[in-house]
Specification:
hydrolase; alpha/beta; CN hydrolase domain-containing protein; 16 strands; C-N_Hydrolase; binds the ligand NC(=O)CCC(=O)C(=O)O; Nit1/2_C-N_Hydrolase; 6-stranded mixed beta sheet; Nitrilase/N-carbamoyl-D-aminoacid amidohydrolase; 27% strand
């Protein structure tokens, strides 16, 4: 029985996770069909948690978001309003896996005041499904990707998208808690630290880094979040396609262990990568380097104790 000296496990039993580094293009129906094929392959390889990339159902770009956006509310949305919602639910159910369904552009239309013009907002939204195909959670990207690196890349998601305003921690009952965020969110350690201190065994980020920042920061950020929090981290990218569009994804989907060692890393093309996660790895990282008992909340505040918004989006 767990005592103060024996912390209760954050990962209840070993589990295999797969990141599907998907090649998607401009045909949404083809992207959904390809994702279904690859989720099947991941499940056949023994994965019980499967991750898809950011914006897996569309090309990634501000010009594309409104065109590919789907309405998710009211829940469950109709197949016409959100083919991706229904396709993801079926992928999870048909394969009996937890599906962290990358992200899709989401459209939300609201009437702010009686008689006012409807207002449409777009979000970059992850949908997480249970093995029975029910929606467990949604995460709207909190930190929008607005950067300007001369000679490198300029991108302004905020020209089109609105930010989400909550932290997302999902309970997978057989395994434990997982923190979900999207791509640029990985640069903000607070989000990760709060999720980890709420008891997550893994932090999962569907992402789509680019050819300027990818080589410098992608693996570094994955390893940094694992190192800070002594838990598993998974980053899942689209495959790189130099023939389509103007945004070329870095690829290199990876899973990092709680000692910040890369367990597996994809190349640039379409690929499914697998990693086996277990509690022992988390516990040995935490007992060997006992950060959890060494924090100095008399010197700095405990961000995980601050009022955190975990309400449904
Ligand atoms: N889709 C994104 O949020 C890209 C983030 C990125 O490339 C970065 O450097 O950060």
């Amino acid at each position: 029985m767990a005592s103060a000296a024996t912390p209760s496990p954050v990962l209840k039993q070993p589990v295999r996770i797969a990141c599907v580094q998907l090649a998607s293009g401009s045909d949404k129906a083809a992207n959904l069909a390809r994702a279904a094929e690859k989720v099947r392959e991941a499940a056949a390889g023994g994965a019980k948690i499967v991750v898809l990339p950011e914006c897996f159902n569309s090309p990634y770009g501000c010009d594309h978001f409104p065109h590919y956006a789907e309405t998710l509310l009211p829940s469950p949305p109709s197949a016409e309003d959100s083919p991706s919602f229904h396709a993801l639910a079926a992928m999870a159910r048909d394969n009996g896996v937890y599906l962290i369904g990358g992200s899709i552009p989401e459209r939300e239309t609201t009437l702010s005041q009686e008689g006012a013009q409807p207002q449409t907002r777009y979000y970059n939204t992850a949908l997480i499904f249970s093995p029975s195909g029910s929606l467990l959670a949604t995460h709207r990207k909190v930190h929008l990707f607005d950067i300007d690196i001369p000679g490198g890349i300029t991108f302004r998601e905020s020209d089109v998208l609105s930010p989400g305003n909550k932290l997302t921690v999902v309970d997978l009952p057989e395994y434990g808690l997982v923190g979900i965020a999207i791509c640029y969110d990985v640069r903000f350690p607070e989000l990760a630290t709060i999720a980890a201190r709420k008891g997550c065994f893994a932090l999962v980020y569907p992402g789509a880094f680019n050819l300027t920042t990818g080589p410098l920061h992608w693996e570094l950020l994955g390893r940094a979040r694992a190192l800070d929090n002594q838990c598993y981290v998974a980053l899942c990218s689209p495959a790189r396609d130099m023939t389509e569009g103007v945004y070329h994804a870095w690829g290199h989907s990876l899973v990092v262990d709680p000692m910040a060692k890369v367990i597996v890393q994809a190349g640039e093309g379409e690929e499914v990568v697998f990693a086996d996660l277990d509690e022992q790895k988390i516990e040995s990282a935490r007992s060997g380097i006992p950060l959890r008992h060494q924090r100095r909340f008399d010197v700095y505040p405990d961000v995980s104790q601050a009022k955190v918004n975990t309400e449904k989006a």
